[in-house]
Amino acid sequence: MGLRTAPPPIAWLMRQALERPRVISLAVGFTDEATLPVNETRALLEGILRSTRRGRAALQYGTTAGDAALRACAAARVRVQDAGAPGARGGAAYLPERLLITNGSQQLLYLVTEALCDPGDIVLVEDPTYFVYLGIVQSHGLRCRAVRLTPEGLDGEDLKRVLTRLGREGELGRVKLLYMVSYHQNPTAITTSLERKRAALDVLRHFERRAGHPIYMVEDAAYRELQAGDAALPASALVLAGAAERVVYASTFSKPFATGARVGYGLLPRAVHQVAVRLKANHDFGTANLLQQLLLEALRSGVYDRHLAVLRKRYACKAAVMLDALREHFPPAVGWDEPRGGLYVWARLPPRHKTGLRSRVFREAMARDVLYVPGAMCYADDPTRRKPAHEMRLSFGGARTGEMRVGIERLGAVLAEVC
Ligand SMILES: Cc1ncc(COP(=O)(O)O)c(C=O)c1O
């Protein structure tokens, strides 16, 4: 498996951002540097280490599934976020024993994919999707089928079409999971409605009878807490009937607090949880205990929520700066939708203009020290459709507002020459 693993583009993009200080990176989803909670973290760590007993416990190995108090706290947090949904069931899906703490939600996605899939299996993904997840898929020798994404989220009718076709081709037995980024999606910023999640789960349940095994829905909620306004967000798929045995819910404390303290988590069906814990035991037998204690204290003390409120305002402001700059500098032929949260704007050039690593747009942008994520990177290798190559993902997370304006102005100049 190791030899099969292609170089992940994320590593290259992050290196460009870190090693070439002149480059304005609108590519990576780093958190806003100025808001990183340094003082809060110092105070929390001092609090943890003040007591010798607590300090020793924090500096010792923990359990593989994660600190019991943090698991309970994270499970309760998701239950509360979902509580307002019509028909929400409090039930089994939110039990702390189903919760797994991981090194960022990235590790959870890796473990779950490894737990559910064998090489040659098929994973269903949104079109486009989170490109780093595609690295996990590639590394495990899995195949992809892409499902249409509309402004309301994953298209259940298209999911049905994709699965019907796979049925005709005798491939349903290889379909193991659907991966979706349900809130402020990376890269498009689309949020999938609860109705769309219900429709997707129903379709999966329908086809799994013919597949002969469960087809899981992996809901990645990494950007759920990074919402710009106060409008109510849809509940997660965990509220749906039968979700406790079919939905894997992945989330993170990493982006909403500090990406350097990578603590993620997931709520998993029992059978999947058991296997994922075994795999995690082989990886690292537990997420760093000190970081778990840090997050636990941040959550319990209210520091986390206060920081989140600051961060949400900050990102709303940065998104507005980016959108203003786009309106000012991008040619009218380029379109985009306004994000209501998350860290990204998905810009669409006319289809004949390419944005890939070898394209004129990318090379000219790099020559002017601006980096973006070429849209094609976010599309799975799906042999049933041609990969679109005319979009770009722009992040307003890491770059400073002044840099962002300059970056968009330079990119706009490139696009004006090309489009
Ligand atoms: C959609 C999505 N899921 C998961 C992750 C992983 O984040 P972390 O491992 O820091 O929790 C990211 C990071 O960019 C992401 O964009």
Average pLDDT level: 95
CATH topology group of the largest domain: Aspartate Aminotransferase, domain 2
What is the name of the CATH superfamily of the largest domain? Type I PLP-dependent aspartate aminotransferase-like (Major domain)
Count of the separate structural domains: 2
Q: Ends: how far apart? A: 42 Å
Q: What is the rounded Rg?
A: 21 Å
Fraction in beta strands: 5-15%
CATH arch. level architecture of the largest domain:
3-Layer(aba) Sandwich
Bound compounds: pyridoxal-5'-phosphate
Describe this entry's structure for a reader:
- The protein has 419 residues and is α/β, with parallel strands linked by helices.
- It folds into 2 domains: 9-37 and 306-418, Aspartate Aminotransferase, domain 1 (Alpha-Beta Complex), CATH 3.90.1150; 62-301, 3-Layer(aba) Sandwich (Aspartate Aminotransferase, domain 2), CATH 3.40.640.
- 43% of the residues lie in helices and 15% in strands.
- The chain is built from 13 helices and 14 strands.
- The protein has helices spanning 9-19, 38-50, 52-58, 68-82, 104-116, 131-139, 156-168, 194-211, 270-283, 289-301, 303-329, 360-367, 401-418, and strands spanning 24-25, 99-103, 122-127, 143-150, 153-154, 175-181, 216-220, 247-252, 263-267, 335-336, 344-348, 370-371, 373-374, 391-395.
- It has an 8-stranded mixed beta sheet with strand order 2-9-8-7-6-3-4-5, with helices on both faces.
- Helix 8 links the parallel strand 6 (175-181) and strand 7.
- Helix 11 runs parallel beside helix 13 (401-418).
- The longest helix has 27 residues, at 303-329.
- The radius of gyration is 21 Å and the shape is globular.
- The mean pLDDT is 95.
- Pyridoxal-5'-phosphate (PLP) binds next to helix 5.
